[in-house]
Every structure is written in C-alpha cells, then in structure tokens.
Amino acid sequence: MPSRTFFDTNVLVYLFDADAPRKQTRAREILARSLEQEEAVVSTQVLQEFFVTVTRKLERPLTAAAAEAALQRLMALPVVQIDPEMILAAAVCSRRDRISFWDALILTTASAAGCERVLSEDLQHGRSFGTVQVVNPFRQ
C-alpha cells in the first residue's frame, strides 16, 4: 500500500501559476503521480488558503469561477476536516518546534491523516516532525 502524502497549499497553487512554469510543471507531475497511486491528501485549511491565494495573490489570478472549479476537483481528494483537538495540538507543536501556528496545523493535520510526508516549500526540507517528514518537491 502506498504511503499517504499531504499537499501544502503552495504546491497546489503552483498548478495554476503560469508565471512559474518550472514549478507549475513539477507540481503537475507530482500531483498526477500521487493521484495515480491514490496517496494525495489535503485539509480544509489547504482548500481555504488555496482559494484565497489563487484569486488574490497570483500575478495573474484566477477568476472566482475558475478557482471554484479547481476547488471542486481538489475536494475529490481525501480531505481532512480540522477539529478542535488538532488546533490545540498545532498550538503545542508551534510552541515546541518554534514554527508558525499555520505550519504546525499543516503538520498536525498530516499526522492525523496518517501521512508520512508533507510536500511544501515553506518548511525545512528533510526535517521530521514526529512521524511526518517535510519534502520540498521543487528543491534542486
């Protein structure tokens, strides 16, 4: 059985960032492979951040309708719903590991989903947080 991989928001945003063609291609390859192996996981936090980022923060943002269509496709993945216990665990992780609360929530959610990896360029590549290891898929 393949291991589960949690996708951080930034990896998914690159799917639609035409101003970063190398990263866009890489993100598409990674997601396609993960879909084929049925290992990709996201959270409600990632879906929310994704919508805001692709509609407001890209150089060439998506229309709301296009972003909604993308959200619908991403919602076909296993989605972890964040609960109060995860929020508290993220607060503890944030303090203990001296990382942002939002990054800690990503790690906590990934762990709760049984993921072995978090794909992200926001955290330190190769660093492990409990049973979850951070992998920067864009690292040379």
Explain this structure.
With 140 residues, this protein is of the alpha/beta class. The protein has one domain: Rossmann fold. Helix content is 51%, strand content 15%. It contains six helices and six strands. It has helices spanning 9-13, 21-36, 44-56, 64-74, 84-97, 101-112, and strands spanning 4-7, 40-43, 79-80, 115-119, 128-129, 132-135. A hairpin with a 2-residue loop joins strand 5 (128-129) and strand 6 (132-135). The chain is globular.
Rg computed from alpha carbons, rounded to a whole number of angstroms? 14 Å
Are there runs of 5+ residues with pLDDT below 50, and where? Answer: none
Structural class: alpha/beta
- Overall structural domain count: 1
Helix amount: 40-55%
Q: Please report the first level of CATH classification, the CATH class.
A: Alpha Beta
The 3D shape can be described as globular
> Would you tell me which CATH topology applies?
Rossmann fold
Let me know the largest β-sheet.
6 strands, mixed
**Strand line-up of the largest beta sheet:** 3-2-1-4-6-5
Question: Into which percentage range does the β-strand content fall?
Answer: 15-25%
Number of helices: 6
Order of helices and strands: EHHEHHEHHEEE
Alpha-carbon distance between the termini? Answer: 28 Å
Strand element count: 6
Mean pLDDT: 96
CATH architecture assignment: 3-Layer(aba) Sandwich
SSE blueprint and pairings:
Layout: E1 4-7, H1 9-13, H2 21-36, E2 40-43, H3 44-56, H4 64-74, E3 79-80, H5 84-97, H6 101-112, E4 115-119, E5 128-129, E6 132-135
Parallel strand pairs: 1-2, 1-4, 2-3, 4-6
Antiparallel strand pairs: 5-6
Helix pairs in contact: 3-4, 5-6
